[in-house]
Amino acid sequence: MVIADDERLIRDAFAALLGFEGDIEVAAVASSGEQALAEAARHEPDVALLDLQMPGMDGIETASALLRSQPDLAVMIVTSHGRPGYLKRALEAGVRGFVPKTVSAPALASAVRSVASGSRYIDPDLAAEAMQAGDCPLTARECDVLELAADGTGIDEIAAKASLSAGTVRNYLSSAMLKLDAANRHEAVATARRYGWI
Length: 198
What we know:
The chain is of the alpha/beta class. About 55% of the residues lie in helices and about 10% in strands.
């Protein structure tokens, strides 16, 4: 298997813990999505364990790229950001496993074996939270505009970045606030981030 996480301590800990399992071989570790692609091409593993949030290509983008080149690869996401929107996007990308970084070593090894055998493994708490949250009520464009507004960027700058008019940006922000029952765009951003929709 190949393990990718931008935090050295985390990836080395996963490699060491899984390396103790007699039936799991860690062929390589990577510090980025791009490096994970190179290692997967070199070693052709059965399983790739990817951190959700890495600089450059995130775990979901890396999963998509890996599965385009190696469709039979079992990809798992491990994350400290187990939000429903991330889980849904990961599943849509073809990921077979989704676990929090708080998972125990035996549970992680069991999940690796499960996805390697062709099954799915979704952490039960994350699955329950995703079912409770439901689908994202926002359109893709509303999500884009909210994401651009996340750091306090002004309407005119958002409009320029999104190639929209200022009025259209205001309309998207108003619609998103209404759908998320938010008093302002900052509250809407917070809600959308909490569920992993942006």
